[in-house]
Structure formats: structure tokens, C-alpha cells
Amino acid sequence: MRGLTINDARTGQVSEQDALARRFEEYRPHLRAVAYRMLGSISESEDAVQEAWLKLSRSDVTAVENLGGWLTTVVGRVCLDMLRSRTTRREDPLQDRDGYVRLPDPVVTGLAAIDPEHEVLVADSVGIALLVVLETLAPAERLAFVLHDLFAVPFDEIAPVLGRTAASTRQLASRARRRVQGAAPAPDADLVRTREVVEAFLSASRGGNLDALVDLLDPDVVARSDGGALRPSAVRRGAGDVASNAVMFARFAAAAHPVFVNGFPGVLAMAEGKPMSLMAFTVKDGKIAALDILTDPERLARIDLGSVLGD
After folding, report:
1. What are the structural domain ranges in the chain?
2. Calpha distance 56→21 (Å, rounded)
3. Chain centroid offset of residue 311 CA
4. What is the DSSP string of 170-201?
5. Virtual CA dihedral for 90, 292, 226, 114, nearest 10 degrees?
6. CA torsion sign, 87 to 90 to 96 to 101?
7. What is the C-alpha to C-alpha distance for residues 225 and 269, in angstroms, rounded to an integer?
8. Is 247 exposed, middle or buried (0-12, 13-18, 19+ CB in 10 A)?
9. Residue 1 carries which DSSP code?
């Protein structure tokens, strides 16, 4: 067999790179899902996945038996660095004092079947309420919990990313798990029943029926609103306090369009053809346990109204 010519060698290199790129694309939806849970930001998740591709394209992975696992830990390391750098770039992602709140980026879809890309992104009940709690974890805790509890990565593979022992990494995940279980209610899986609760909430809001609103809310409900830099933000706790905002809810409810927010029933309110608010509901045992409202004009403007509203 003759040796490779220069052109043959170049063709071989290109073919190997193309093959690697094709393999990477197979893992991209999974990697975006990992990054989204780590960062709570769609744009930053895309950046993290792209950085993982750059690292892959510059690495010799011929001896890597589990490329998906290797890429998962690479994305985890990239996200860890991004989380650690946030405090030097901006305020904490979620801060419920001094009237400032920043909710994670929502994944908004219409009532038709969710496209495969978004389905992977929000699978496994990654509602807004869970992402809010993940935002409160320390970066190392978040990595240990997300990779192990949400993606079943063994602790001995997570430990080198954190520069810790497997036992220490296990402790981090355990601490994070307790915080998540205590603060993030597991939503009801029955989406039909959840939609009924949401519709009842909207009806009570439109009618200004305070008693009905209180009855629909969990006694310990938490309502968070994120208005961005131009609109006020707030956190309210308890059924009575949350229901007292019936006037505000009535304004949103009057222009409500049913949507899915991170795979769960939610509401997009429109005014003059533009989104005015996005409401994400966490329903637990038939009661609204968390209500997250995005009114930030800049972030609302990123919603693809055509695909969401079916225009």
C-alpha cells in the first residue's frame, strides 16, 4: 500500500475532524442541558458548550472510551469557572433583598409538542423554582449536585474537576441535596391538573376574588418578580401577602396566553402585540407553591412569539 500523499493526509485530517464534529453534535443537546442547569442562562449555556467543542477539537481523545462522559465533565468545568467569575462581573444571579431579584432564563414553548431540542433542555422537571434554588448554591455544590444527582456522573469523575476527594465531593452533593429538597418543591406531574389550577388562579385574579386566590395558594407560597433594570422587582411570601397582589395579577390575567415554561403550564401576558409578563407556576399537591414572574422587557423581547403563540 502506498503512503499518504500530502493531499491524502490533509483529507484524512479533515475527515477525522469532521467525524469528531459529528459526534460532538450528537452530544450537544445533552451538554446544553447540563450547562443550563449549571448556569440558569441560555446564552451562557451556549457559550459553555462552544467552549467544550474548542477544548475537544484541540485534544487527543483517541484513548477516551466514554466521550459523552468526558464532554460532560469538560462542560462542568467550564461552567464552574463561569460561576466563580460571576461575582467579579455582576451581582449574584438571585438576590431577594433590597428589592432586587434575577430569575433564571425561562424556556418558553407553545402548547404544541415541544421540539426535541427544548425537550432535552427542560427534561426531568427542571422548573424555574428548582433553578432558583440552584442559583443559591455555591459553585462547587452546584456542580456536585447537578452532575451527580441530575446526570448520574460518578463522584470519582466529578472530584478531579473540583480538586477534591470523592468523599468530599459526595459531602458537597449531600449538602446541596438537602438545600434543594428543603427549598424547591417537587412539582405535580399531572400537567392537565396543573393547567386547571393555573386557569382557576387566572379566573380568581380577573374577578378579584381574594378568598379563591388564597385557597389556590400553598400557605408558604413564594412569589418572585424580576423586572430587570427598568422595572421594580420583589419577593413575597405567604398566601395572604401573595393574594393581596390580585390587582396586579388581574392585569396580567386579562391578557393571558397559555404557554409552557420549562415544560410546565405557564402564562404569557401580551399588550399591544408585545410580551408584558411571563408567569411560571410550581404546583405541588394541587396548590401553587411558587410563582415566578418575569417582567424584564429586555429578556421578554427574546421570546420567539411566532413559535410560542403559533402565529
Report:
1. 6-91+126-183, 191-309
2. 9
3. 25
4. HHHHHHHHHHHHHHSPPPPS-HHHHHHHHHHH
5. 80
6. negative
7. 14
8. exposed
9. -
Cell 479533515, residue located: 14
Give pLDDT tens digits along the chain (311 positions): 344 444 444 555 557 778 888 999 999 999 999 999 999 999 999 999 999 999 998 888 888 889 999 999 999 999 999 999 975 444 444 454 444 678 999 999 887 755 555 555 555 557 888 899 999 899 999 999 999 999 999 999 999 999 999 999 999 999 999 999 878 778 898 999 999 999 999 999 888 889 999 999 999 999 999 988 777 788 899 999 999 887 677 877 888 899 999 989 999 999 888 899 999 999 999 999 999 999 999 999 988 887 777 65
- Cell numbers linked to 262: 420549562
- Write down the CATH number for the domain with range 191-309: 3.10.450.50
Q: What does the block give as the cell for 38?
A: 449549571
Cα distances (angstroms) measured from residue 187 to each of 77, 138, 184, 284, 308: 29, 24, 9, 5, 22
**Exposure string over 250-288, b if 16+ CB within 10 A, otherwise e:** eebbeebbebbbbbbbbbbbeeeeebbbbbbbbbbeebb
Q: What are phi and psi of 259, to 5 degrees?
A: -140, 175
- CATH number 1.20.81 is the correct assignment for the domain at 6-91+126-183: no
Contact 210, 250 (CB under 8 A): no
3-state secondary structure of 183: helix
Q: CA angle at residue 215 from 212 to 217, to 5 degrees? A: 115
pTM over 0.70: yes
Cell numbers found for residue 25: 453534535
Residue 309, classed as helix, strand or coil, is: helix
- Which cell goes with 307? 413559535
User: Would strands 217-226 and 287-294 be described as parallel, antiparallel, or unpaired?
Assistant: parallel
* Residue 215, all three cell numbers: 385557597
